[in-house]
Amino acid sequence: MRNSVNVRALDPFYPIVDSAAWVARLVGVGARLIQLRIKDADGPTFARETRVALAHCRKAGATLVVNDDWRAAIDEGAEWVHLGQADLAAADLAAIRRKGLRLGVSTSDEAELERGLAVDPDYVAYGPVFPTISKDQAAAALGLEGLTRWKRRVGPLPLCAIGGIDLDRAKRCLAAGADIVAVISDITLDADPEGRARQWIAAIRPA
């Protein structure tokens, strides 16, 4: 087994955004862990956005997680990649590991958790915890009890809660066992995204 990731090394505030411009805005107000998730972009566009987002994160001392496109993550020199179940099945995991990338995986049921744990991930994401608008097809909310059960299963491995999470729900997720809380619309659809991000950081980041 590889050296494990210390939970404390991963910030509990984990915004997911769809452009390098969003990355710049959020690392500018203190985000330390951020995922770049761009759906339906062509290869050159995704590579360019990844390159620019990485530059913003490195300047700010933050960590960028590249969603799904493991080839772009390798080519652009990223340190982290996140794979959903379909992408996990198709990815060249040996190539990802040879390049030293850390890996997060999505899970939503027991079978997916078994598949995820089998690849020795660096964190496991569980969700959707609550109903969410971020998926093309609505998935049943899995709830906080399942989150607690997942934490018992993964033990010291960092557990990320995702799906329909606002700041109040984030606190409940952390109390239920999550180490990291992913957020999309509660930041990106807020009238003052930077201000909302500051509220999240103040509320859930350890002193």
Automatic annotation (TrEMBL):
Domain (Thiamine phosphate synthase/TenI): give its ranges: 19-187
Q: Can you name a GO cellular component term?
A: cytoplasm
Which cofactors? Answer: Mg(2+)
Q: Which GO terms describe its molecular function?
A: magnesium ion binding; thiamine-phosphate diphosphorylase activity
Catalysed reaction, written as an equation: 4-methyl-5-(2-phosphooxyethyl)-thiazole + 4-amino-2-methyl-5-(diphosphooxymethyl)pyrimidine + H(+) = thiamine phosphate + diphosphate; 2-(2-carboxy-4-methylthiazol-5-yl)ethyl phosphate + 4-amino-2-methyl-5-(diphosphooxymethyl)pyrimidine + 2 H(+) = thiamine phosphate + CO2 + diphosphate; 2-[(2R,5Z)-2-carboxy-4-methylthiazol-5(2H)-ylidene]ethyl phosphate + 4-amino-2-methyl-5-(diphosphooxymethyl)pyrimidine + 2 H(+) = thiamine phosphate + CO2 + diphosphate
Instruction: Give the record's cofactor note, including how many are bound.
Output: Binds 1 Mg(2+) ion per subunit.
List this protein's GO terms for biological process: thiamine biosynthetic process; thiamine diphosphate biosynthetic process
Which Enzyme Commission number(s) are on file for it? 2.5.1.3
InterPro entries referenced in this protein's UniProt entry, alphabetically: Aldolase_TIM, ThiamineP_synth_sf, ThiamineP_synth_TenI, TMP_synthase
Q: Which CDD domains match?
A: TMP_TenI (cd00564)
Quick one: which residues bind Mg(2+)? Answer: D68, D87
Q: Which residues bind 4-amino-2-methyl-5-(diphosphooxymethyl)pyrimidine?
A: Q35, L36, R37, I38, K39, N67, S106, K135
Keyword entries, A-Z: Magnesium, Metal-binding, Thiamine biosynthesis, Transferase
Q: Which SUPFAM superfamilies match?
A: Thiamin phosphate synthase
| Positions contributing to 2-[(2R,5Z)-2-carboxy-4-methylthiazol-5(2H)-ylidene]ethyl phosphate binding | T132, I133, S134, G164, I184, S185
Per the record, the pathway is: Cofactor biosynthesis; thiamine diphosphate biosynthesis; thiamine phosphate from 4-amino-2-methyl-5-diphosphomethylpyrimidine and 4-methyl-5-(2-phosphoethyl)-thiazole: step 1/1
Tell me which Pfam families the record gives. Answer: TMP-TENI (PF02581)
Classification via PANTHER family:
THIAMINE-PHOSPHATE PYROPHOSPHORYLASE, THIAMINE-PHOSPHATE SYNTHASE
Q: What does this protein do?
A: Condenses 4-methyl-5-(beta-hydroxyethyl)thiazole monophosphate (THZ-P) and 2-methyl-4-amino-5-hydroxymethyl pyrimidine pyrophosphate (HMP-PP) to form thiamine monophosphate (TMP).
Protein family membership: Belongs to the thiamine-phosphate synthase family.
Indicate what this protein is called per its UniProt record.
Thiamine-phosphate synthase
**Underlying gene:** thiE
